[in-house]
Amino acid sequence: MKNIIVIGGGAAGMMAAVAAAGQGHKVCLIEKNEKLGKKLFITGKGRCNVTNAGDMETLFANICTNEKFLYSAFYGYDNQAVMTFLKEAGCPLKIERGDRVFPVSDHSSDVINAFSRQLRKLSVEVLLNTEVTGVLTEENQFTAIKLKNGRTINADACIVCTGGISYPSTGSTGDGYRFAEENGHRLVEPKPALVPLETKEEWCRELMGLALKNVSVRLMKGKKEIYQGFGEMLFTHFGVSGPLILSASSFYVKQQGKKGKADEDVKVFIDLKPALTVEQLDKRILRDFEESKNKQFKNALNGLFPTRLIPVMIALSGIDPDKRVNEITKAERQSFAALIKAVPLTVTGTRSFAEAIITQGGISVKDINPSTMESKIVKNLYFAGEVLDLDAMTGGFNLQIAWSTGHLAGESAGGE
């Protein structure tokens, strides 16, 4: 029987503790907050999108960084295993559009409670309000951890599951990065991801709070398309947000230069009518215009856009708002149709870690054994979850990374 310490009581840490204790080992789970799963509690606006029910191909297609590293973890403990675990632990689940899996109750607390029950059942010692300040090693082998109160706890193995640095208010303050670097591991520069984007255009502020559904977005760096997606977005006082933009942001962050600024102008193009081709849209506009041929341009657009968007679209079109519809030229109308299919915004950066759902970057996976999650540098030291340089799109995929890597680390730490 081994003594195993898990640092961090979030998704990866709770799963690692359950997996290690499930093999009959003595496990101590240390969390610096006053309760477990603090970040899990606020995920999915408190509903907690625990995983995605898609097939393996879908899971890997939604990983943004180092998907090959996850083969052993995902195949060893997949989304079905997570769903079975939660159901058996007393948290019934449901599947919504996009194969996103939620607790039936829509309460993230049910997920945390399911883990808490399992931890108690397996006699895991949970230390809350306890901060680890150091991971101690001798001759490239883990020996003990040091607590803020000066106490040292010896153990046979340690699993670091301290998360990234997004939502620092939940306790994600980069401790794991420090433990790793102090013990010779490389760090890939952490950046905020799944985060709102800031834009140069002032008109976004005028539309603050306006949500657009069923639109398509393209993210372009020069002539190169770096992301394309369909869904929902939101205008804010600083730029754009919403599920579609959060997904796009991970690809934006990936191509940023070292200084965190884009190498060149990156533009977002919003297609307000993705179901129509430019030609079909032009015909639709022509029909609308014929029905209101004596109206002014500014009064003939109610069928096309939400009311608040009309003045912005008129300004961007360059067409005189007072011009009668029957005086608008074919060229003007066609260029208006092209604008509706690609409303341009210039991205100037992302919001901060305080608003980022996840962290892109982290401990380099080159220093970690993908089939065990053990450090290649320090024996009996393991890492799992967001502390590693792994990230994915929205839709339950980031939590699946946490569950799979946490489970693998817990099993491996308890193995021979």
Structural commentary:
With 416 residues, this protein is an alpha+beta fold. The chain has two domains: 243 residues, 3-Layer(bba) Sandwich (FAD/NAD(P)-binding domain); 156 residues, no CATH class. 31% of the residues lie in helices and 26% in strands. Helix 1 packs parallel to helix 6 and helix 10 crosses helix 12. The longest helix has 18 residues. It is elongated and about 85 Å long.
- The beta-strand count equals 21
Strand % is: 25-35%
Please tell me how large the radius of gyration is.
25 Å
Catalogue the unreliable spans.
none
Strand order of the largest sheet: 13-16-15-14-17-18
Shape: elongated
Which second-level CATH architecture of the largest domain applies?
Answer: 3-Layer(bba) Sandwich
Domains (count):
2
- The CATH superfamily of the largest domain appears as FAD/NAD(P)-binding domain
Major sheet summary line: 6 strands, antiparallel, barrel
CATH fold descriptor of the largest domain: FAD/NAD(P)-binding domain
> How many individual helices?
13
Helix content: 25-40%
Overall pLDDT metric: 95
User: CATH class of the largest domain, anyone?
Assistant: Alpha Beta
Distance between the termini: 10 Å
Helix/strand structural class: alpha+beta
Provide the descriptors you would attach to this structure in a database record.
single chain; 416 residues; alpha+beta; FAD/NAD(P)-binding domain; 2 domains; six-stranded antiparallel barrel; five-stranded parallel sheet; 13 helices; 21 strands; 31% helix; elongated
